[in-house]
Each structure stands twice: as C-alpha cells, then as structure tokens.
C-alpha cells in the first residue's frame, strides 16, 4: 500500500535496497521474525553508512505471550 514493498525479512533483502536509507525504523516487527540473524542483518544492510536505525521492541517480561523474541537493554549496546 502506498509504495510499500512486501519483503520476507527471513531472507536477504533485494540488492536494490542495500545501502539505500539514511533512517531505518522498526516499530515492533523484528521480534516476530523467525530468522533473527537475517532480519538484523537486513536492517544493517539497507542503512547507509552513518545512518540511523531506531528499534522500538518489547523488553524481557514486558508483554507476556506477545512474540517469540524479547531483548534486553544490553542487547543493543
């Protein structure tokens, strides 16, 4: 919708998206993706050098039964 692209984040993103964005946001998506390594790699790979990545994710013990994965604050340090 409105120019969005349906992409399965469990797999590498299309090459035309690599190093393309100066701001990448994640407002509650990554914790639902089974391939955690690939989804974080994808976020990194689409962001340009010195770009900004913002994650808004549930922390440990915050939202019971919401998703498969939760993150500690230290994870992002």
3D structure, described in words:
By secondary structure, this protein is α+β, with helices and mostly antiparallel strands. The chain has one domain (16-76). 14% of the residues lie in helices and 22% in strands. The protein contains one helix and two strands, in the order E-H-E. It has a two-stranded parallel ribbon. Helix 1 (36-46) links the parallel strand 1 and strand 2 (47-56). The N and C termini lie far apart (34 Å).
Topology of this protein?
Layout: E1 21-27, H1 36-46, E2 47-56
Parallel strand pairs: 1-2
Summarize this, please?
The protein has one helix spanning 36-46; strands at residues 21-27, 47-56. The chain is of the alpha+beta class and 77 residues long.
Strand order of the largest sheet: 1-2
Q: Globular, elongated, flat, extended or rod-shaped: what is the shape?
A: globular
Oligomer: single chain
Instruction: Briefly note the structural class of the backbone.
Output: alpha+beta
Total number of β-strand segments? 2
Strand content: 15-25%
Count of individual helical segments: 1
> How is the main sheet built?
2 strands, parallel
Question: What radius of gyration results from the CA coordinates?
Answer: 13 Å
Count of distinct structural domains: 1
Instruction: Please give the share of residues in helix.
Output: 10-25%
């Amino acid at each position: 919708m409105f120019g969005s692209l349906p992409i399965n984040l469990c797999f590498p993103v299309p090459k035309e998206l690599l190093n393309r964005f100066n701001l990448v946001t994640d407002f509650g998506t990554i914790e639902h993706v089974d391939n955690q390594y690939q989804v974080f790699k994808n976020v990194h790979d689409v962001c340009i050098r010195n770009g900004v990545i913002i994650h808004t994710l549930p922390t440990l013990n915050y939202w019971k039964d919401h998703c498969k994965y939760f993150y500690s604050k230290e994870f992002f340090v």
